[in-house]
Amino acid sequence: MTLSLHGIGVDGGIGTAVGRIAMLARGSIQAEPRMLHHGNVEQEVARFLAAVKSAADQLRQIRSQIPPDTPPDVAEFIDAHLLMLEDRALIQGPVDLIREEGCSAEWALQLKRNQMVKLFDQMEDPYLRTRRDDLDHVVGRVMAQLTSKDRQEETDEVRGRIVVAEELTPADTIVLHNQGAAGLVTEYGSPMSHTAILARSLGLPAVVGAHGATTLLQPGELLVVDATHGAVLAGCDTGTLDFFRRRIELERAHRHSLLELKHTPAVTRDGIEITLMANIELPEDVRAALNAGAQGVGLYRTEFLYMNRDTLPDEEEHYRAYMEVVRGMGGQPVTIRTLDLGADKQCEQQPELSSCINPALGLRAIRLCLKETAIFRTQIRAILRAAAAGPVRLMLPMLTNIHEARNARALVDDEIRNLKQDGVPIDAEIPVGAMIETPAAALTAGDFAELFDFLSIGTNDLIQYTLAVDRADDSVAYLYDPLHPAVLQLIHHTVRTCREKGTAVSICGEMAGDPRHLPLVLGMGLKQLSMHPASLLEARQQIRRLHWRNLREETRKLLEQPSPDLVEQQVRQLGNTEAPH
Ligand code: PEP
Ligand code: MG
Question: Active-site residue 369, yes or no?
Answer without folding.
Answer: no
